[in-house]
Amino acid sequence: MKELLYKSIYRKIYYHRDKNMMLMNYFEASSGYSDEDYKKEEIIFRDLLDEKGAISCYVDTLNFNYIITPEIQKWVTEIANSVLREDKLKKLAVLVSENLFTDVSVRQMADKFEEAEENTCQIQHFTSKKSAITWLFE
Hints:
The chain is an alpha/beta fold. Helix content is 41%, strand content 24%. It has four helices and six strands; from the N terminus they run E-E-E-H-E-H-E-H-E-H. The protein has a six-stranded mixed beta sheet, sandwiched between helices. The mean pLDDT is 83.
């Protein structure tokens, strides 16, 4: 059973206790993110991920329309690495947006996570929710 942990005009975050998995879905309003709003939301997500200790995470970016600049990518990598260093999150599946610019910025940020030496989390990008969820439970 999934529990709604957080909802804003930009995204909603769920936790599946029986699967120890976080799920995050973006809304179309994400195109209106300011850098500060995005940072606040990322801190909330990081804190919820840390609190629940989820071992897997599914992120649906189909409606994500915020282009993550290199500066914001670096910032997110730094704040998220505190959770990744604790070796809790094992797999992150990202359902990618059809918006080329958004997709590229999301992939660049994921690459930064994977390059961090303290990262032990596997990150994969998918075009199908079914494939993403299947991979999370392999």
